């Protein structure tokens, strides 16, 4: 395994572990999701560069576009929950309350 592949794999796994174990604030969960998407973007970009295929070069751009949409939706949810509940703690988000 090359150092580049190891770095990308470890960044993806650290984001996944952070998302699984550090779920106290909504902002930290969103940052872990962004780290996962960034690792996927870099991996797909390097993969398309190594293959020298122009047909595979659209996949990283699509991942980046979906990442921007995910970030904006996450930020909108963060602002909405901070306004309604007064905090971004995930424990405060109860779906059973009206």
Task: Give a structural overview.
The protein has 98 residues and is mainly alpha-helical. The chain has 3 helices and no strands. The chain has helices at residues 3-21, 26-51, 58-85. Helix 1 runs antiparallel to helix 2 (26-51). The mean pLDDT is 86.
Approximately how much beta-strand content do the residues carry? under 5%
Quickly give the structural class. Answer: mainly alpha
Succession of helices and strands: HHH
Query: What value does the average pLDDT take?
Result: 86
The backbone outline, from C-alpha atoms, is elongated
How far apart, in Å, are the first and last alpha carbons? 51 Å
Please outline the major beta sheet: none
Low-confidence spans: none
Please estimate the helix content. Answer: over 70%
Number of helices: 3
- The total count of strands amounts to 0
User: For the CA atoms, what is the radius of gyration?
Assistant: 17 Å
């Amino acid at each position: 395994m090359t150092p580049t592949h190891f770095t990308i794999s470890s960044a993806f796994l650290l984001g996944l572990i952070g998302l699984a174990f550090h779920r106290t604030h909504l902002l930290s969960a969103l940052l872990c999701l962004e780290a996962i998407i960034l690792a996927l973007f870099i991996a797909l970009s390097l993969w398309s560069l190594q293959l020298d295929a122009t047909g595979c070069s659209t996949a990283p751009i699509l991942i980046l576009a979906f990442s921007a949409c995910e970030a904006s939706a996450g930020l909108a949810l963060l602002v909405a929950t901070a306004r309604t509940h007064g905090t971004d703690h995930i424990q405060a988000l109860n779906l059973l309350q009206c």
